[in-house]
Design goal:
By secondary structure, the chain is of the alpha/beta class. It contains eight helices and ten strands. Strands 2-1-3-4-5-6 form a six-stranded parallel beta sheet, with helices on one face. Strands 7-10 form a two-stranded antiparallel ribbon. Strands 8-9 form a two-stranded antiparallel ribbon. It binds flavin mononucleotide and iron/sulfur cluster (SF4) (2 copies).
């Protein structure tokens, strides 16, 4: 049985990482974590499980935490994780390890992949040639990671405790408010009522009312709706106004919709 790769991805970086890992390993079946959000238990039928997800406010996305809580890894022999993020170091890999340990499971390997930061309220999207360079470096790291996974080695990239402190404060606050963070979304007159924002939302948190998106307050803050809106009609507060939108160059909206 092929390794099972479970992916959560808003703008494609983590899906790209899963694809490249499958390429380097020569095998890997990719599924969306969001697909299982109504399942009581998720029991992989593979001996190797990979978790691919982004870093959110120096911690794990809520959906990832909830997915892991429902994972039954009793028949799994090797669990690894690939976390994509911008340049910020965090406590997330330590949190993931603890989360799995509390379920009696072991995180064998954990890799942090520095890629493009899609949080445009705070960061700027680099030009395409710089993106290419960033992902070429990330791919090299994935190649080495694949060897580690193939050889079933154990090594988790964690951070030192001073680096973990900011996340200890900011992540719980973010978590408390994330579901309703979608109140910050606005939609401009440029909206063409195409419905792509609703389709690409991994957790169906958007419905179209009179042709315009309405957010339903069970948001993950993945920003897929904002980044994929064709006329760039969606903003997340004043700081995203006029900023370049982003998704991984090799990942389309349809690729992400297929993960639901
Ligand atoms: C809500 C949110 C919070 C984020 N927080 C961080 C962070 O604390 N540190 C960081 O380096 N990147 C942060 N990022 C950037 C993402 O981790 C990064 O762009 C990731 O690769 C996106 O993955 P995806 O394309 O699979 O959704 C954040 C992005 C979002 C949407
Ligand atoms: S994706 Fe953009 S244009 Fe399409 S319905 Fe949503 S807000 Fe409107
Ligand atoms: S509403 Fe937008 S930001 Fe929230 S989960 Fe859906 S796509 Fe992501």
């Amino acid at each position: 049985m092929q390794p099972a790769f479970y992916v959560f991805s808003g703008t494609g970086n983590s899906l790209w990482a899963a694809r490249r890992m499958a390429h380097h390993l020569g095998e890997g079946r990719i599924e969306g974590m969001a697909h299982y959000r109504d399942a009581k238990v998720v029991k992989p039928d593979s001996l190797v499980v990979g978790l691919f997800f982004p870093l959110y406010v120096m911690g794990l996305p809520l959906l990832v935490e909830e997915f892991i809580a429902r994972l039954d890894l009793s028949d799994v022999e090797y669990v690894f994780a690939v976390m994509t993020s911008g340049p910020v170091l965090s406590r997330a890999m330590t949190d993931l390890r603890k989360l799995l340990k509390s379920k009696g499971e072991w995180l064998a390997s954990g890799f942090r992949l520095k890629v493009v930061n899609n949080y445009i309220a705070l960061f700027k999207i680099p030009p395409l040639d710089e993106q290419k360079h960033i992902f070429a470096q990330a791919d090299q790291k994935l190649k080495t990671a694949a060897k580690q996974v193939r050889d079933r080695l154990h090594s988790v990239e964690t951070t030192s405790w001073p680096v973990r402190i900011p996340g200890l404060i900011t992540h719980p606050i973010w978590k408390r408010h994330v579901r309703a963070a979608d109140r910050k979304f606005t939609v401009s007159d440029a909206c063409t009522s195409c419905g792509l924002c609703a389709q690409v939302c991994p957790v169906d948190n958007i419905k179209l009312v009179d042709g315009k998106p309405r957010w339903l307050h069970h948001c993950e803050e993945c920003l897929a709706c904002l980044h994929f809106c064709p006329p760039e009609a969606i903003d997340f507060g004043p700081k995203t106004l006029g900023k370049t939108r982003y998704h991984h160059a090799e990942v389309s909206a349809n690729d992400l919709i297929a993960l639901k």
